Amino acid sequence: MATAEQKQEGLHRDSSDFVITQTFDAPRELVFQSWVEPERLAQWWGPVGFELSVLALELQPGGVFHYGMRAENGYEMWGKFTYQQIEAPERIVSILSFADKQGNPVQHPVSATWPLESFNTMTLTEENGKTTMTLRSTPHKATDEQHETFKQGFESMKQGFKATFGQLAQYLARVQ
Prior knowledge:
Elements: H1 4-9, E1 18-24, H2 28-36, H3 38-41, E2 50-57, E3 64-71, E4 76-87, E5 91-99, E6 117-127, E7 130-140, H4 144-152, H5 154-175
Antiparallel strand pairs: 1-7, 2-3, 3-4, 4-5, 5-6, 6-7
């Protein structure tokens, strides 16, 4: 549910929330480190078949994770997380956008009506040595049309995140 603050600012609409959850056979601290350490992120973040370059990672409110991804065919794209809150090792709140090489937000490469930014909350809980990660994402400062496009993209986002989180699971299995 949206907090009163989020509703007041108009930044959060429950009907537009994309939520995905996955459990990893790894302790919460390791999963958290895998999200915030450049050398770990480079091992798993992004679409399958892309090589990740970490251009900046400043783990503090207002700091950014700016990254580039390169496909085997040479296609390149960039993204950026702007951190809002960090509560190690249980929560990261950020604003995510596609970006240019300099880190400026840019429109989705294949959708003119995709929201320019999304507001993301990633939470980690641990039980019996396993970590459950929940990612909640909603359009940020978006029009009604952008919210609708975002909702229509849920299935594609689910497939993409499942593949990315599969890479995270493989990484975690290798480093434990």
